[in-house]
Design goal:
2 copies of one chain form a homodimer.
Chain A lengths: L2 E3 L5 H8 L3 H7 L1 E5 L1 H9 L6 E5 L5 H12 L3 E5 L1 H8 L7 E6 L15 E6 L4 H14 L3 E5 L8 H7 L7 E5 L1 H9 L4 E5 L16 E5 L8 H6 L2 E3 L12 H16 L3
Parallel strand pairs in A: 1-4, 3-4, 6-7, 6-10, 7-8, 9-10, 9-11
Antiparallel strand pairs in A: 2-5, 3-5
Chain lengths: ~270, ~270
């Protein structure tokens, strides 16, 4: 049976709310995801929350499934008020469910690079919306996962989880330094393709090799020179306009679809 | 000579800060843009602010140009503190310049559809980041502008302007109802192409006609059925993953690059 929490002062509410801060997520090894769609996506991928909160009086077949499966695996299910859900998630228009999940462990060595034709590698990505959007694109193009290099925004932030629309649970996520990544990359097959303005090679010209590691740089700075030098190939997208730039998540998607289009049957 | 404002209580500061609210932007017919890069982009497109604020003690050749050209066209230039810039823009890490611009007038009849091969049409787009990102993509693919249908987020919101990275000033922006848009569309050449999950036509199969009007729907709902029925063509992108969706700005970009790629010389 779900227990009820209706007091704002409940210490668990405070603790869960604390997971909106990166340092607390790191220390506790847990993160928040919210919304029936995202939690259902997670469930279908085999991820159930350790604690499931839902709004009192809500009924939905997908919610019922989440509740029974969470309880069956020994998780805790808690009925609460919309106000407390809002307090925990920080969202103005709170979802009716919120789950507390253990963060995914795993370094580069846990990846099987042959499991997918495309891997996305992001360097010092700063915007959680971009990170989540890239995860969602990765899901759509059948990428294996997202490798976060250097000082990227936390993929387990509430904003990134939200923007990923559940793709967080379908994509492998690994964090590594560049110094760790390069030797790992070179220890097996794979082509490192950087998106850059410092090249004349059109992104539709090369035939990409599998697995393709698509490298996207920081939103404001792009890739450091030394990182571009390490790439097997630098390519650029045509830009006809004045601004001469694309949003990082958009550029990644246009590239990823090109790689997918070269390989898919039509 | 620039005048100085260093008091938070200055009524102009309050008025400019008020432009972060849509209802004030509507009433006053002005909006805010911030950052040397975006204001320079605007200047190069012929847009100078009516009021230019900059942080005391800042020197930069691009700032000097903005100051002298703003003064030359009769605009007001005001030196102020970083704290006041922060108060006005709401940004944690305030830019060193902020401009107050008159909102662009113009309805559908002001558009010359033959001026570009691609136009982007967004219906009930809710996220200002998506809107700005779509403007930036429009700039990159050489689109003529963005037609906002029904209840879209305000393109002149601080978040949308920021996400557009200056493309707000390179793209025509028009707001219209669907009932206004359809007769206008049908009064001249143009193919209306909707992005949809309700079709088996792959987005790379058709040869798009010029001008192509790319129609993207609301982030959560997609396009209403009646709107899809009006399209000359519905197409979908391959999605290999579980989530079966793409971010709206990403889907628009992948489509827009396909249209561009079909037409550009290589």
């Amino acid at each position: 049976m779900p227990r009820q929490i209706t007091a704002f002062s409940n210490p668990l509410v405070k603790q869960v709310r604390g997971l909106r801060d990166k340092k607390n997520r790191r220390r506790e090894g847990h993160f928040l995801a919210e919304g029936l769609r995202i939690l259902t996506e997670a469930r279908e991928e085999g991820f159930l929350p350790e604690i499931l909160f839902y709004a009192i009086g809500q009924h939905h077949p997908l919610l019922d499934t989440l509740i029974s499966e969470t309880e069956a695996q020994g998780g805790e299910v808690i009925e609460t008020t919309p106000d407390i859900l809002h307090k925990m998630s920080g969202k103005d228009n709170p979802q009716i469910v919120l789950g507390v999940y253990p963060a995914f462990p795993g370094g580069l060595d846990s990846l099987d690079r042959t499991a997918a034709n495309i891997w996305i590698v992001a360097q010092s990505l700063r915007d959680p919306g971009n990170l989540g959007t890239i995860l969602r694109t990765g899901d759509a193009v059948g990428a294996g996962g997202l490798i976060l290099i250097d000082d990227c925004v936390d993929p387990f932030s509430v904003e990134a989880v939200r923007a990923s629309m559940g793709a967080l649970f379908t994509q492998r996520i690994v964090q590594a330094s560049w110094e760790e990544f390069v030797p790992w990359l070179r220890s097996g097959p794979g082509q490192l393709v950087g998106m850059s303005l410092q090249t004349d090679i059109d992104y539709q010209t090369p035939r990409y090799e599998s697995p393709t590691f698509l490298l996207v740089g920081n939103e404001a700075q792009g890739l450091p020179e030394a990182y571009e030098a390490e790439c097997d190939l630098l390519v650029k997208m045509p830009m006809l306009g004045k601004a001469d730039s694309l949003n990082a998540a958009v550029a990644t998607a246009v590239m990823a679809y090109e790689v997918l289009n070269q390989r898919r049957p039509r």
